[in-house]
Amino acid sequence: MNEDRPHQPSRRRVIGTLAAGAAGGVIAESQLAQSQTPPAPPTGPRKEGPAHKTEVPPGQLDDYYVFFSSGQTGEVRIYGLPSMRELMRIPVFNRDSATGWGLTNESRKILQEGVLPEYRPHLAARGGIYDNGDLHHPHPSFTDGTYDGRYLFVNDKSNTRVARIRLDVMRCDRIIQLPNQHTVHGLRVQKYPRTGYVFCNGEYRVPVPNTGAVLDEPKKYAAMFTAIDGDTMKIAWQVMVDGNLDNVDADYQGKYAFSTCYNSEEGVALPEMMAKDQDWVVIFNLPRIEEAVRKGDYKEINGVPVINGRHGSPYTRYVPVPNSPHGMNTAPDGIHAVANGKLSPTVTVFDVRLFDDLFNDKIKPRDTVVAEPHLGLGPLHTAYDGRGNAFTTLFLDSQVCKWNIDLARRAYKGEKVDPIIQKIDVHYQPGHNHSSMGQTKDADGKWLISLNKFSKDRFLNVGPLKPENDQLIDISGDRMVLVHDGPSFSEPHDATIVHRSKINPKSIWSRDDAFFADAVARAKKDGVTLESDSKVIRDGKKVRVYMTSSAPVFGLTSFEVTEGDEVTVHVTNIDDVEDLTHGFCIVNYNVQMEVAPQATASVTFVADKPGVYYYYCTWFCHAMHMEMQGRMLVSPAKAAAPK
Ligand code: K7E
Ligand code: CUA
After folding, report:
1. In angstroms, rounded to a whole number, what is the distance separating the alpha carbons of residues 300 and 291?
2. What is the mean pLDDT of the chain?
3. Of residues 457, 428, 401, 396, the one with CA closest to residue 32
4. Nearest atom in ligand 1 to 453's CA
5. From the CA of 249, which ligand is nearest?
């Protein structure tokens, strides 16, 4: 099943049609995808496979964390590798029934603060919160070229947001929505000296500012490249560019970031976007941009310094590459960066050491290109093993291509060498791939995950909506070996594999954690000690209920409020025991939240229906967990005085 496939020259001609442009090319693309419909699934007894490589015996731990995005599900998922077991989910841009993310006061504050003032009125009916997100790219913070275990940064393409997750508690602590741009697609972070900047690509071109004064005049639209300060989660600066930005990466010197860009035509419909056979990679000169901000060479728009980085600017360079490139991936050697061709069967290899000369006008943009190997159809993303080899996903060919960077450079100079080492079938239509530690200078060349968009026949049929298929490939030897199929719900675009030595989360919350500082402050004002008091404070129509939870009892077995009261319930889990989580759910009241050991969680609602309502613990915590319950007694509001 995973033996090599020869090159398929007949398919290459299709790319000619694609690159030649127009909607006809897209029809050819979908036909090509159909032509790959696999043979009927095998029946009969299961065969033995190479799965033992992924086996982590009971009681033993995985070697790596994998932070998977989940696309339109809006959350982050943590897997263990090599077992590919899902370990945990971190809600971010979604609502989550289990943890109460999107419902608790603590999470709502983060979600509400992550909306620009100009969009808040539009969300008023939904409590000032977006309900959906489209999370593509999870990237951990760096110090000195490798992961430092502080944060994970993620984008929301759908509502133009960036979120930060604290890796000590695996919880989102900040969200911001970016002004002056429309979507955040590509997201990567500064690798050196540290993060530092979080680079965010604005994909769609819109009027800036987007107020309605300009509508159907696409020539007046622009896309924006944004650098967020990862420590403060404030925007450091934005650069206005030509074309649509797709993916981004950064170098290992802290000097440059670079983005693939499609639609240099600046069209708004597909035939226009594909009209030319070249687009470009935009290179951003970080020291020059910082200098421009210091000197005031910018326009302030919506409170953000916006630098003009369009053609001719000293802050950017535009390097022509074949039509519609997609992934942008820096190699762990600190020298090479690869733009993936998508509509072109090639990838374009840059030597980032040449960028100084480019910005000093000593060489031409294309002089920074040192190789452009022809790999196969639909190259989207590239990963590395740290031994000079690269692994590129071929979306249309449903393959991963292993190739050698040095051989590609030599072939580009005219030497008769083939940079392609091996191609392996994946199932099917891969987007991103990721290698173990492969986006750091510590790339270890052990594992590769191919994140495939289609699973078709690879799993039991679950109806018209199928899972994606994340396949694990052993790259430790000379040949790639496919070792595991992993279904996942919509839709991981990207994943980051981090060695477990880099991450060190807590098992129990610290009582002084900022995550529930507001609840602590409210309690203090009410003269309540969260860790010991269980009481009800009435403040006009506002009622604040404080209770502890300690298996298997809540600090209050009942509390009484009046119809129409605004009730805030605070639950503090005083169990100081690893994994002893409680939950708090009020029946028929749309209230449910998780309270992990030593945490406080709170929720606010209006007690608008009189009656008896049980609250109960939702996390199985004790033999008497079923009995961990209490009653909320809601008395009817006094009837209006009779006339
Ligand atoms: Cu290629 Cu959004 Cu990184 Cu999807 S992106 S595949
Ligand atoms: Cu507490 Cu179940």
Report:
1. 16
2. 92
3. 396
4. 6
5. 1
